[in-house]
Each structure stands twice: as structure tokens, then as C-alpha cells.
Amino acid sequence: MPENEALWLPAKGAAFRRGPAPRTPPQADEILVRTRAVAVNPVDRLIPVIGGFVYPWLSYPAILGSDVAGEVVAVGPGVTRFRVGDRVLGHAVGPEKASNRAAEGAFQSFALLRESMAAPIPAPLSDEAAAVLPLGLSTAACALFEPDLLSLRWPTAATGAMGETILVWGGSTSVGCNAIQLATAAGYDVFATASPHNFDLLRRLGAAGVFDYRSPSVVPDMIAALRGRRMGGALAIGAGSAAACLRVLGALPGRRFVATASPPVSFDAVPAGRARHLAPVLLRMALASGRLWLAARRRGVTLRMIWGGALLTTATGPMIYRDYLPRALAEGRHRAAPEPLLAGKGLDAIPAALEMQRRGVSARKVVVRL
Ligand SMILES: NC(=O)c1ccc[n+]([C@@H]2O[C@H](COP(=O)([O-])OP(=O)(O)OC[C@H]3O[C@@H](n4cnc5c(N)ncnc54)[C@H](OP(=O)(O)O)[C@@H]3O)[C@@H](O)[C@H]2O)c1
């Protein structure tokens, strides 16, 4: 078999470098996958910049990347759901605290996936389209179903409408596209925000109400449209989303809980390895977090951050990747959204893909073919 190659992050704050990597055989409940497509995420840019704060446990050299689609080349003991030759997608968990293993990062030719965080790819779906799913799906599932977050009824247990509405602020993000689909599959109505050119996409994914988050009257408009409904909580994605969600929930009956995916301040402008650029951003972050906390307290709303990798160690992981996704994808009930945007081919294309992601996309997930 061919040798393994990876895009290494050699040290904290260093630049990515391509180089040989060991090919690690799968242990119990793991599969080894020849990666054919990977998607890039904001976290892959954040770790080189603020990895010391957010991933203090991370061992270097590290291999990042969460989103894998590829072909199984070996299975570990105890694996029953997959065989050599199967096409799979999976959430690669290399940088997670419970893993912290380069062999489980996505940005390499042969990556290890956990059986509980992988699902078969149905024949009509390309590897590039399948690679858009994992981290967005895990993060949305974490927000909606983890007991310490929105704790909604699972889509695998859904037998009818719940009579509650979930607000998804940032519906056209990859987290949002999955959240709309998961919440509707679980029997909740969803109101979501996006730019108007993405309204149709959100409706196709199941949103009952769609709003332009840039409109100056979006919060009062939403509150007016939601009158008479009972809220089940909100998922806040994107800059300014948490503040807006808690204003909406604070004005309506139901659960006053906002699960938030994005920090209140963006780290996008901080160059990797430039600690002196970081201090003012961290200060702004502390001030913005304090303001948010006060606003939430005033309105009686609980605000809690999501950690998309939490599914690695909780029952939500197998519920999503084993019990929900395979059938929902095969039957067309869950769509791989947003559409992939191909940034190039090979590990060397990943840094440019990350830059494309940083500059901003609209309802697209930046993908690299390997
Ligand atoms: N906590 C976690 O575990 C976790 C995991 C994954 C992602 N995240 C975070 O979740 C966020 C989304 O990540 P992603 O990969 O899903 O993003 P993405 O798909 O790259 O986001 C692109 C979308 O963001 C929307 N957008 C831009 N500014 C917005 C705003 N102010 N409010 C709402 N939507 C806005 C745009 O919508 P339009 O084009 O329609 O305007 C665009 O479609 C990021 O902040 C990321 O860091 C957190």
C-alpha cells in the first residue's frame, strides 16, 4: 500500500508543512480511511493562532482537520458496521482532548476514524459533497441534543410535532444547515436567519420562517412573527448572533436557552504565531463576553458555548452517526448541505482553502480533493 503523507502543524503558532507520516493501524472500534476529500473549518485556522488557549493539551507536531470522506482500507477489532472498500464520511477527532493523536487528524492520506463518528456514504453522493457534513453536523447535534445544552428530543425518537420552535441564527452556515434539518427531523419548527439569496435553501432544508440577519428590524420582526409560539431555545451562529438570540428569546414564552457556536469576537485578523496581536483581541473578547453575560442575566436567558467534539464521548455521537444519519442520508431526508466549493487538489491546497474560508463563503463549504 502507498505510504502516508500529512499536512503537519509542527509547533504552536507554526506554519503548516507537508511531510511523511506514520500509517497507524486501527485499534478496537476504529477504521483506517484513505481520505479522498476533506473540508476545512474555522477551527483549523484558529488552532495555529489561539491553540494554546483553546486546545492547551494539543501535542505537536499535530495533524488538524475534522471532515473526512474516503474509502475504508482496514478495520480494527470489534468493528461491525464497515468493511474494507466501503465509502465513508466521518468526524476526525485528532485534536480533541480525549484523542490528542495525530493519526486521527483529517489532513493526511490515511486517517483513523472512530466507528461511532462515521457513516456510510450513499452511492449518489460524491466524496466532496459528503465531506461537508461531519463537523457542522456534530456541532449542530451537540447544540440541539446534548443534555447540558438544548437537550431536545432526538430525531431517532421523533413520533410527531413537539409544538415548539427553535431559532437557528446563521442558518446558511454549515452548522446551521445541519441544525435546521436535525431540529425539524426531531419534530420542532425552525425559524432561521440568512442573507435573502439563501432563503430558498433554508426553506428546502425545512425552515418554517426565514429572516435577513442584516435587517435593522430583524429582532422585532422575528418576535412579531413568533408571537403565539412556544420557544424550545436558540442556536446562535456567527458574529452578533448570541446577543440577537437572547433578545428574541427574552421576549417570548418557552425555554430561555441559547447554545452558541461562535465567540463574541472573531480571531480572524490575528496572524498565526503573533502573540502580541492576540492580547487586544482577548481583551475585547473578555469585555464582549461580560456584556453578553449581563444581557443574558437581565433577560433570564442561559447562554452556553458549544463544543462540537463533545460527541466523541457522549451518546449523541452514535445516535447521529450510527442510528440517524445512514438512513436519513440514503432516503434523502438529510441533505449534505451546504454545497461543496472545491479549492484544489492535494494536501498543499489546504492552506489556500483555509484562506478562502477566512475571506468568507456564503452557503458553501470549502473542500479539498486528496
Ligand atoms: N463551537 C464549536 O464547536 C464550533 C464548531 C464548528 C463551527 N463553529 C463556529 O460556528 C461558526 C460557523 O461555522 P461554519 O463553518 O458553519 O461557517 P461557514 O459555513 O463558513 O459560514 C458561512 C456563513 O456564515 C453566514 N454568516 C456570516 N456572518 C454572519 C452573521 N453575522 N450571523 C449569522 N450568519 C452569518 C453567511 O451567511 P449568508 O451568506 O447567508 O449571509 C455564510 O453562509 C463559526 O463561528 C465557527 O467558528 C463552532
Keywords summarizing the entry:
single chain, alpha/beta, Quinone Oxidoreductase, Chain A, domain 1, Rossmann fold, 2 domains, seven-stranded mixed sheet, 10 helices, 16 strands, binds NADP nicotinamide-adenine-dinucleotide phosphate
Question: Care to give the gist of this entry?
Answer:
With 370 residues, this protein is an alpha/beta fold. It has helices at 42-54, 127-130, 134-145, 174-185, 199-205, 218-226, 241-250, 275-299, 316-330, 350-359; strands at residues 4-9, 17-21, 30-39, 62-63, 67-75, 87-91, 110-114, 118-120, 165-169, 189-194, 209-212, 231-236, 257-260, 302-305, 339-345, 364-369. Bound molecules: NADP nicotinamide-adenine-dinucleotide phosphate.
Topology overview:
Elements (H helix, E strand, L loop, with lengths): L3 E6 L7 E5 L8 E10 L2 H13 L7 E2 L3 E9 L11 E5 L18 E5 L3 E3 L6 H4 L3 H12 L19 E5 L4 H12 L3 E6 L4 H7 L3 E4 L5 H9 L4 E6 L4 H10 L6 E4 L14 H25 L2 E4 L10 H15 L8 E7 L4 H10 L4 E6 L1
Question: What would you note in describing this structure?
Answer:
- This protein is of the alpha/beta class.
- The chain folds into 2 domains: 4-133 and 336-369, Quinone Oxidoreductase, Chain A, domain 1; 137-308, NAD(P)-binding Rossmann-like Domain (Rossmann fold, 3-Layer(aba) Sandwich), CATH 3.40.50.
- 32% of the residues lie in helices and 24% in strands.
- It is built from 10 helices and 16 strands.
- Strands 3, 5, 6, 7, 8, 15 and 16 form a 7-stranded mixed beta sheet that branches. The chain has a 6-stranded parallel beta sheet with strand order 11-10-9-12-13-14, sandwiched between helices.
- It is globular.
- The mean pLDDT is 95.
- It binds NADP nicotinamide-adenine-dinucleotide phosphate.
- The site of NADP nicotinamide-adenine-dinucleotide phosphate (NAP) has 28 residues, from helix 3 and helix 4.
- Residues 41-42, 135-136, 139, 169-170, 172-175, 194-195, 198, 213, 237-241, 261-262, 306-308, 361-363 line the site of NADP nicotinamide-adenine-dinucleotide phosphate.
